[in-house]
Every structure is written in structure tokens, then in C-alpha cells.
Amino acid sequence: MAWKPGQSGNPKGRKANPIAERFRKATEGQLDAVITAMLTAAKSGDTGAARLVLERCIPPYKPVAPTTAFPLDGDSLKEKAESILAAVAAGAIAISDAKALIDSLGALAKITEFDELERRVAALEVKKRGA
After folding, report:
1. Which of 13, 83, 85, 91 could form a disulfide with 73 if both were Cys (CB 3.0 to 4.6 A apart)?
2. Same-domain status, 52 and 82
3. pTM score above 0.85
């Protein structure tokens, strides 16, 4: 028997891990005390407790590069790529940013090419039906 699209192969869901369930039940009423003990240990210099508290409470820092505005001159994709390289040469943007921008221009070129091909095929089909 094959499963129907959208139908779960396990409608009851995954079975709970019995060890995890026992642990949850055993610590259920003591969670506040455990948290307090961890914070107390961290405050008194226990680096393991401090690390655990920080890892669980504060998301890791992810650096974000600042954005830089610069003119993207030119009408053609080639001219736009040249203006990106000129911005790198002038120190206006980083090489990694320039690579990402030029890769984006390459993707845009492919999309434009497919769009043009689709338009041409549609025109040929209309011409063929009319002939």
C-alpha cells in the first residue's frame, strides 16, 4: 500500500524517548532550583556553568558587514561589472562583495537569456499557428 500525498506514514508520531521522559518528570518541579544553582555557580567562578548559561541564554554573535552604496554605472551587464571592479579598485567595496555582485549579474544574465528565449519561442509558436 502506497502512502497518499500529504498523508503521514506514522500518524501517531514518533514515540517519546523513555529515558528523556523519565528525566523530564524527575526534574519537573526542580527546574527553578537547577537554574538558580547554575547561575550561582557561574557567578562564583565556575566557568563550565557560566559557559552553559551563556550558550543557552544568549544567541551567538554573527557579524554583519556594513553596506556600502556606490554608483552602478552602465546600461549593459558588462558595463555594470566594470563599474563594480572600478569600485573595488577605488576601495569603495570589498573584493568579496564585488564577487557576490558580479555573480548576481551573471545570474541576471542567465535569467534575461531565458526570458528572451521564452519570448522568441512564444513568437515562433504564434507565427507557426498563423501560417
Report:
1. 83
2. no
3. no
Cα separation, 117 vs 109, in Å, equals 12
Who contacts 101 (Cβ-Cβ below 8 Å, separation ≥6)?
A: 84, 93
For residues 84-106, one letter each, b for 16 or more C-beta atoms within 10 angstroms of the residue's C-beta and e for the rest, the string is beebbeeeebeeebbeebbeeee
Count: domains in the chain: 2
Assigned domain for 62 exists: no
Query: Domain of 117?
Result: 77-130
- 25-47 pLDDT, tens digit each: 888 889 899 889 999 999 999 99
Claim to verify: residue 90 and residue 120 sit in the same structural domain: yes
